[in-house]
Write a structure and sequence with these properties.
Length: 138
């Protein structure tokens, strides 16, 4: 995975893919400098105990037939844009944006009532030296 030394410019919305999620395809992400972390629309989010330890299963975006299983996850409190605090699962994965693949940490949340199923927050933008130009279109 590449970490650029010079700033790359993103628009307010960018097409992205997730190499770790088979059968998902390209998704449009909202680049949200007001959000600290990113959020991935997911359903069927549940933790299970197995013989080899805890696992987390979820269905990303509006693909209920696709179930992703991860062992690398955490649970943290998050304050949403409306001020509510809730426990959310966080996963580590990779994202491809503008042809390059980067590590990213995302919270899992049911965003079905939201306009955009994927937010990319300023933590990822800062870590990977991205600038946001709101006049740029994807």
């Amino acid at each position: 995975m590449k970490q650029t030394s010079t700033a790359k410019t993103l628009g307010s919305f960018e097409p992205v893919t997730f190499p770790d999620f088979a059968n998902i395809g390209r998704i449009t992400a909202k680049i949200d400098t007001g959000a600290y972390t990113g959020a991935l629309h997911s359903t069927k989010i549940h933790e299970e105990e197995t013989d080899s330890g805890k696992i987390l299963r979820f269905s990303p975006f509006d693909h209920p037939e696709t179930v992703i299983t991860v062992t690398d996850f955490a649970v943290k409190y998050v304050r949403s844009s409306n001020g509510d605090t809730e426990n959310r699962y966080f996963i580590s994965t990779t994202i491809t944006i503008q042809g390059e693949t980067y590590p990213i940490v995302l919270s899992l949340a049911d965003r079905s009532e939201m306009k955009w199923p994927l937010l990319i927050g300023r933590r990822f933008l800062r870590k990977n030296n991205f600038l946001v130009d709101v006049s740029k279109t994807a």
